[in-house]
Amino acid sequence: MMARLHILNSQHHQMQMTKTQLIALDVDGTLLGEDCCIPQAHRDAIEYIRKQGDIVVIATGRPLLTTVPLWDSLGLDTPIVCFDGTWIGYPNQQALYEHPLSCEDVQDILVELQRGDGAISLYNESGWFMNRATQWTKHFPKLYNTTIHFGEEQIQQWTEPSPKVMYVCDPDLLQTMVDRIHSIFEDRFHVVTSQFDRFEIHQPLITKAWGLERLIEHLNIERENVWAVGDSANDFEMIRWAGHGCAMGQASDLVKNVATHILPSIDNAGLSALPDLLYG
Q: Quick one: average pLDDT of 198-209?
């Protein structure tokens, strides 16, 4: 009887060891370097992980417009978490989940953001719209290799939902604007700094963790088998939530303090360390 029990326990252990793992990768500062290119070492690591039968997904604040080319480049066939969790699904298909800001929400946010001199971004199925090209945003079309529709009038006359509102400004003024939006709207929206010169506004409680939680329900994967990798404040929730949270080496202490693992920095091809953590 003891021998049979030992065999059953051994089989259970093997099943646990072979459970599919999901690796969720942030884009800017994690998958991509400052040049918005994927280092070859990252491509090699992702290819190796996929060959082991595990699932690699992209979890980003970016819109689909600039995420799908990366997804195609990596040969992925998995769902994408975009707009920091607001949109989850497969490219060119109806969303599995989406939770955009309403038109009323957008209008209320615009009233406050238009008091500043930063650049406001809105999004719909037709693309990416920005009220002005500033010294902080004029290079965006080239950097992100996409079309951005610039124009004050189209922002002022916006009459539909948007997955998020993004605001880009002088980094020295960023925190002042974030504090202002927090003080005006309190808990009505989720406001998060995603890079040194920008913050993003979503529906309350919408984060990458929110998106990944719904994604693993769809894929029938347990939270303990999720590895989430990121570097910025908008990765904080998913790194804290995941069974294995990984912070890139250049991440802030805020992000590192909730991580299970610290990877090398993006400049040192940090994702190349993942296979050893997963299978070493």
A: 96
